[in-house]
Specification:
Layout (H helix, E strand, L loop, with lengths): L22 E6 L21 E6 L8 E9 L2 H5 L6 E2 L3 E2 L6 E2 L10 E10 L2 E2 L6 E4 L13 E2 L18 E9 L3 E11 L1 E6 L2 E2 L15 E8 L7 E10 L22 E10 L4 E5 L5 E3 L4 E5 L3 E5 L18 E2 L1 E2 L6 E4 L5 E7 L3 E6 L2 E18 L6 E7 L1 E2 L5 E2 L9 E5 L6 E3 L6 E9 L10 E8 L5 E5 L2 H16 L24 H8 L3 H14 L26 H13 L3 H21 E2 L2 E2 L28 H22 L3 H22 E2 L4 E2 L4 H10 L7 H14 L8 H13 L3 H9 L6 H6 L30 H9 L2 E3 L6 E4 L9 E8 L2 E9 L3 E19 L6 E3 L2 E2 L6 E7 L2 E16 L1
Parallel strand pairs: 1-2, 15-24, 21-31, 41-44
Antiparallel strand pairs: 2-6, 3-4, 3-5, 3-7, 7-8, 7-9, 10-17, 10-23, 11-16, 11-19, 12-15, 12-17, 13-14, 13-16, 17-18, 19-22, 20-21, 25-34, 26-27, 27-32, 27-33, 27-34, 28-31, 28-33, 29-30, 35-42, 36-37, 38-39, 40-41, 42-43, 43-44, 44-48, 45-46, 45-48, 47-48
Catalytic activity: Hydrolysis of terminal non-reducing alpha-L-rhamnose residues in alpha-L-rhamnosides
Keywords: Hydrolase, Signal
Pfam family, one: Bac_rhamnosid_N
Amino acid sequence: MKRLFTYLILLAGFILNCSGNCYADARIGLQNLKCEMLSNPLGIGTIKPRLSWQISSDARNTNQVAYQILVASTPEKLTAGQGDLWDSHKVNSTESIMINYAGKPLGSRAACYWKVRVWTNNGTTTWSKSAAWSVGLLNPTDWKAKWIGCDHGFAWDSVSKFSRLSARYYRRQFDLKPGIKKATAYIVGLGHYELYVNGQMIGDQVLAGPPTDYTQSVKYNTFDVTGYLKQGGNAIGTVLGNGRYFTMRPKYKPKKIKEFGFPKMLLQLEVEYTDGTKQIIISDNNWHFTADGPIRTNNEYDGEEYDAAKEFPGWNKPGFDDSNWLKAELVQAPGGKLDAQMNEPIRIMDTIKPISISLLKKDTWILDLGQNMAGWIQMHVKGNRGDKVTLRYAETLQANNELYIANLRDAKVTDVYTLKGGAEEIWHPVFVYHGFRYVEISGYPGKPELADFEGQVVYDALPTIGHFETSNDIVNKIYHNAYWGILSNYKGMPVDCPQRNERMPWLGDRAVGSLGESFVFANGNFYAKWLDDIAQSQKTDGSIPDVAPAYWNYYSDNMTWPGTYILVADMLYRQFADKTPIEKHYTSMKKWMDYMRVKYMKNNIVTKDKYGDWCVPPESPELIHAKDSSLNTDGQLIATAYYYHLSGLMQKFAVMLHKPADVRVFAAMQQNVGKAFNDKYFDKVTSKYSNNTVTANLLPLYFGITPAANTRAVFKNIVAKINEAHDHISTGVIGTQWLMRGLTEFGRPDLAWKIASNTTYPSWGYMANRGATTIWELWNGDTANPAMNSRNHIMLLGDLIAWFYQDVAGIKTVNAGFKQLIMQPAIINGLDNINASYQTAYGPVKSNYTRTKDSFNWHVTIPPNSSALVYVPAKNMDEVTEGGKKISAIKDIKPVKMENGRAVLSICSGDYDFEVKY
């Protein structure tokens, strides 16, 4: 019997802040699940959300044929089936994701409750459970609050190269009358904030809110605080930390580092009563504040110092005596537009128990968590008032077991906790994070035990949506290291490293890396927000920086680093079927392409490049960068190849956006650049490009610049160069972004596998065998100057993770969003088992195969409302069985063709077990 039941989950984890749109998610399935909020669905910054749902069915070949959406202004009306905001009625459509809200116009503060039912070829569902969203404050006039702060430091602060600025504590007491119906708080706290109502912390986010260029954009958060308020006296309290707003190195390099100012806040609490009246409490000069509190300093590079003896119990509750506090000052707004935060908040996502603690010297201990991570230590301690515990963080140890901190540069990465004395105290910092595996503990009263500490892993609350493991232990370890490296560097924006005095959102690190990451984490919102950061950093002439937000003034005009802007937009479309980033950013992307063409293109060759194929494995393990010119690739070749490739993407975007004139312009440009590229760099006699590096040959081959008649010969040169390197990697950051998929696409997945599974230098496996638990910045991070090497960098991953999922596991989308898939795992000698899964917008896709000398067994799952072409390795169709039956006897499988030793089959949704016996 076919079963279709409904439930609905608002997956705010999939909310996309793209042209004012959002993506809520309803699931229709077999179980009646609770409504699980993966992110705060309140106060979204759009009046035109997009709605999506997943269908779950135990019947094969389940496809939607129609749907009906109800959106109501109250839960009661929705329960009664009254879609007073929108009743789509029955819509004949197979679309189940990114459905545009088409109901009554929504305004600021609108509350919306919705549900969906669908018709499929296998039956009709009941109504799903309900979910909700609300609209934030969309208009400047909605804000009655005033910016408050204090634009100077205090006697115990230091505004210098190494800033020491204490946290600011703000409070406001107010009275409420009986009959509280609803209360909503809107807040911006720059750089970071904590919000309390009547002594209770609101939300479980940390390091709130997200980093931006605050002169361009400022993100606010919305909270339902109804249950925290009461009739009579109430109090709001906030704590402001420095974050990226009060620059971590002010007055240091003013031409390089962008400054914003001192911490400030905007807060508006709106209370609705049952009698229809309203009351608004706003930030203004009626608030009181102090900076003489327990958080004595907080600096992302240097750490946090907390003096528990200076706590003021009850400061965030009504009745506290704040007569000695200062009066809040009205201050200048930061300048950026107020927008709702649509990307996930940062949270404590995991905890790690340390594996050892050892005495280094008198009163000093070394704690080992066994895993390089980003976050902080939570400590349990009991001692006397005034005892100080100092925690210093590092990724590695010296030979004498002391911390190795040279690679942290001038980041002090030190937390200090001063005890108030008496009962056990539990503490962790709140406005900083550290990248570390080891912690030096000094001043701890008594003997510290493992149970006194835990590592709290802090990153954006992105659901893990991918799983990948193989029969090869070293590859599994590499994937583990990549996983931890990726999550460590999600901090409201993609940073390069979490430990030293950098932590910057370099564009070049994520050009293709973002694609691989999207198979592991649901990073659609995260990267949609980052595209906004990039757009806001664009200068009026069209130039785009290497770092965005442009906290560093690096506008060096490369094709490769800023080109990430276009590559990420394409990734969001392909992986999440989200067209809106392309629509939103097309004009800015075109402006940048025009800028680079006009300023740097000569005879269709792009003449500007700075970084080249960054971090090619050097000729000597002691070198950081290669000095042998034969290892390096011509920067102009790289820049021109990228212009060709990006022109093709812009042509694709122009087609999508119905811009025929632009299609013609980009097509002509691509053709001209391709011809000039081959004329300048291609040797027709040897079929080599430029100096014959792997990158020099790979880029034109993979991008389609190489004439078809020469592709085989060019690829042969690539293979020969890799063989010369003893089947090891010889590409830098740029070449590695296309290497693994390039080798596989042109018929050598076995060579890609050798590179992936190597354990000798240079390789990812070399790092793992040397004890790495994340990915290094340098291939030779243990032999080159270690002061240069970050031990938690992901730029060298290139396309490895994308290759794991797309080629090794064989999970690819045909066009966008995985409605149509190609399942074609690479068959590699020595690889006996693959177990991979990926949560698409339509549901889970699985690819799990086992190879023996006698058979190939492959379990495939395709979600409802999707379909796939599966490529089963076989000599002929008759060799393939599914569930023990010949495929010719199964109505849900349609043979298509035989191709290159594969039986190509068309399947619809469901679980399949294919077998081929040899």
